[in-house]
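A common beginner's mistake is to predict each chain separately and then try to dock the pieces by hand. The better habit, illustrated here, is to supply every component at once so that their relative placement is modeled jointly.
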Amino acid sequence: MSNYATTAELIARFEDDATVAHLTDTPGGAIDTDVLTEVLEGAESFINSFVAKRYLVPVVVSGDTGLAQVFNKHTLDLAQYDLLARGDLVSEAKVALRDNAVQWCKDIAKGVITLPSANTPTSTASRDPVVDYGYGDADSDSERVFNRSKVDRL
Amino acid sequence: MQALFDAIQDRFDEDGALPVLGRKVYQGFESERAKTVLPFVDVTFIGPASVDTFKDDVEEYTVQFSAFTKRVRPRKAAELKEWLMRVFDDCNLIHGEFYTVGFLREGAHGPVLRDGVYQSTIDYRVTVQRTVMVPAVRCV
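With all components supplied together, the output reads:
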């Protein structure tokens, strides 16, 4: 189940249910919702793989209408492209929408675009390191396995 | 002639197999339909040529059906073409604005692979007699 868009919203992007049925390889029958779920989850995972570099995923969009809309739009753009590509023919307009969504993901990962209300990952700055960095000091109990004199003999 | 397309569309939609094989019929040219989900059928009209031998309004059109199907399904392309011929060859289209005089197949080509999709074309010579006079102001 996608967090950013629903199967009903994806179906609404096409002219009728029969068209979607053809795209899900069930011509003349009912829409194969498994296929729709698959492309929606694929689109969401694709977005999350970029967004996760800077924010907690899945991004909680329920509290921010603007954020919900932008995630919804890009998820549907990617999912619609994936669904159309099953039929071999995708128009330039749909390719452009997909490219735009991919660029948006990349810009988030680079920090060009910020998502104000999205949660960032917990900072790790306050964690105690498991071992000290750098050379052991005089008070350290640990014995170094390799040191200059040992290595010289090799 | 919009009425002629409407009648073709009705016949296409009401057939049991065509909407499954060909999904939908559109009026227009293939380049305008590039955005459309495969498969689909395009119908284009050339004409009319007036056949004013008698006082009745008899018109003749060249109607081309272009069927587009997915590249991965070449068999479906041939099947769709054959089914279109089965449904439309010598058919009697019913519409309030005209009587069908003839629906004669003049040729069929394909399927051929073009720009990543299979395309078949079927040409018909369609003769109709209008029941609504053109122009409307003309005296009967």
